[in-house]
Design a protein that fits this description.
The structure holds two protein chains of two kinds.
Chain A (H helix, E strand, L loop, with lengths): L4 E3 L2 E4 L5 E6 L6 E7 L5 E8 L14 E5 L5 E5 L8 E8 L7 E2 L3 E5 L1
Parallel strand pairs in A: 2-10
Antiparallel strand pairs in A: 1-3, 3-7, 4-5, 4-8, 6-7, 8-9, 8-10
Chain B lengths: L2 E3 L4 E5 L4 E3 L2 E3 L4 E8 L5 E7 L5 E3 L5 E5 L4 E6 L8 E9 L6 E2 L3 E6 L1
Parallel strand pairs in B: 2-12
Antiparallel strand pairs in B: 1-4, 3-9, 5-6, 5-10, 7-8, 8-9, 10-11, 10-12
Classes of the chains: A mainly beta, B mainly beta.
Chain lengths: ~110, ~110
């Protein structure tokens, strides 16, 4: 079946612009995660959605970052007034409510000039 | 606090030799432990997990990992490395009553012909 998809695969933007990244989880997966991976570094947790529960936003680095998810479907991560330090690969992952392993998308590579 | 440590940034082995990629963890309660592999410009792929039961778990592509509770370790192993195993490997932990996953910084495995 289809895996987790993300779009766009690459995004180049100018400093100060807003960007929106999209994640389509695997159908039926109620849990969805966003991570940031800076060049040569590990994964940094950003936000977690579980069904209709309030999301865990504890990893968002600043108020310029926000994410939405409607029900158990698509999620969007929005970065406002982008800065050069926002340049990274943004990874999305989903899992079933009682599952343990996450399934990752291919990521969106964001470059802020 | 939950955390994962991968003490080696890089591991180099010759093809055909055994390989070990180290991981230690800190988590409240019983740990759920995972290994993921990341090939260039790709998302993370699940390799194996430890939830409960036998301390030696087997996963994809001939990899295995040993859970050692007293040493709080979960090292990844393979008896005979292949050049195609060259990639970035991430260890992750989840506390049994937590929804967040904590990832190590990654270990780059380089298998030489």
């Amino acid at each position: 079946g289809a895996g987790v998809s993300q779009s766009p695969s690459n995004k180049v933007t100018e400093k100060g612009k807003d960007v929106e990244l999209r994640c389509d989880p695997i159908s039926g997966h109620t849990a969805l995660y966003w991570y940031r991976q800076r060049l040569g570094q590990g994964l940094e947790f950003l936000i977690y959605f579980q069904g209709n529960s309030a999301p865990d936003k504890s990893g968002l680095p600043s108020d310029r970052f926000s994410a939405e998810r409607t029900g158990e479907s698509v999620s969007t991560l929005t970065i406002q007034r982008t800065q050069q330090e926002d340049s990274a690969v943004y990874l999305c992952a989903s899992r079933t409510s009682d599952g343990n392993e996450q399934f990752f998308g291919p990521g969106t590579r964001l470059t802020v000039l | 606090a939950q955390s994962v440590a991968q003490p080696e940034d890089q591991v180099k082995v010759a093809e055909g030799n055994p390989l070990t990629v180290k991981c230690t963890y800190s988590v409240s309660g019983n740990p759920y432990l995972f290994w993921y592999v990341q090939y260039p410009n790709r998302g993370l792929q699940f390799l194996l997990k430890y939830i409960t039961g036998d301390n030696l778990v087997k996963g994809s592509y001939g990899f295995e990992a040993e859970f050692n509770k007293s040493q709080t370790s979960f090292h990844l192993k393979k008896p005979s490395a292949l050049v195609s195993d060259s990639a970035l490997y991430f260890c992750a932990v989840r506390g049994y009553n937590f929804n967040k996953f904590y990832f190590g910084s990654g270990t780059k495995l380089n298998v030489k012909p």
